[in-house]
Write a structure and sequence with these properties.
The chain has 447 residues and is an alpha/beta fold. It is 40% helix and 10% strand. Helix 2 packs antiparallel against helix 5, helix 6 packs across helix 8 and helix 13 packs antiparallel against helix 14. The longest helix has 35 residues. The protein starts with a strand and ends in an 11-residue tail after the last helix.
Length: 447
Amino acid sequence: MPDQVGGMEDQQAECRCIDVQGSPTVTLTHRHTFALKNNMLSGVTLPAWLSFLWRHGGRLDWWPYAPRIGFLTLLSAVNSLLAVPDWVLMRRRVAATHLHPDPVFILGHPRTGTTHLHNLLSRDARFACVDTLAAGFPSAFLTLGPALARLAAPLLDPTRPMDAMALSFQTPAEDEIAVCALTGIHGPPNSVRPGGTSPYMPLVMMRDQALFQPYYQLESASAADTARWLDAFTWFLKKVTLRAGGHKPLLLKSPVHTARVPLLLKLFPRAKFIYIHRDPYTVRGPRVWGWLAAPVHGESAVPRQGPAVARTGTQRRLDPPISHGPPVSGTCAHTPHPNQTPQVFSSAAHMADSYYPYTALQRMTPPDVTRFILDQFSLLHDAYQAAKPLIPPGNLVEVSFAELEADAVGTLRSIYDRLGLAGFDRVEPDVQHYCSTLADFKKNDLE
């Protein structure tokens, strides 16, 4: 069993959910439809981009996205020129770089505190970290560095669109963004897939989201797609390692890694994992959704704690925790208030409206985005629970966002102790300083 800091033990039950007053939905304001910045494909190179347009241009909505497509075409040509120094000067050194066998992976569903935890842990200089420059421009960051950051500054807002957290090219970022740019728009010449060896590609082509689901776990992906992803992933990690001096362990955070524990353990048998979770329900606003849990095939109802996802045919909904007796320590077990809404869903829906339009090349609809959020929640949760026993004892810590928010320093110290990471006393002043910079930060009000 993993060491836990407020960890969850999920008791899952198959059930039917009857929608009484409507299901959680996403509201889209269609802001940023014509925006040209904050796009995760800003670092793509010309050959890959033209290949994407050749194969899949017919699937795109050229109106209203023609300006964005044209801008990305121009930008990809510039990126190809900027990538030359990395390829000519650094490729042999990158190929010769060995990855440290003890990386640390931050796992968790999007909007559960993974970014906050990533920012805190990145204060530790022992780690090689992915920043926004490397993630956004994976083909050129190694050689051009600060000059590239100055050149690309107009492409990035000073705060994140979804939560107003500070954003710069030095901010820690998700490695999957880089892998998406390196592999996400490639495909075999005769592939019927709309491009993509990354589950981030639905942000570009939301209507075709189901075709990208094999790239969460990569178990059902083709051998060619899996090899392409692995090549891009390890190549990028070698570049990040080389930039950090060539010997540091990696600190990596991409929520989709939550579904890849078996694959990550094959690559790094000694990897350490930190799984962060968040109570998905808070009293928030007047909207009321009704759920009625009924036993399946005449079975009696089973108590459920934590964020179960109920399936009814092709429908998926977050099933509120139902209390049967006293709360279970370390879970979300409590009787749901009639005005409770799924906070994680609300936060993800807000992100969909405030960020996804920066990247989209297909029109998004509320049903498509709702399905994407709930399917992703279900997939990540189920894959993690199934793979958790594979992690060696002492290499997994589970932590709640509530604890991290209430006592970041104490929670991090506990994480270090449980994972056997020495030297937190050296890191603590930097962590405290970072926390002090967040004193005036206000979280989104999603009522």
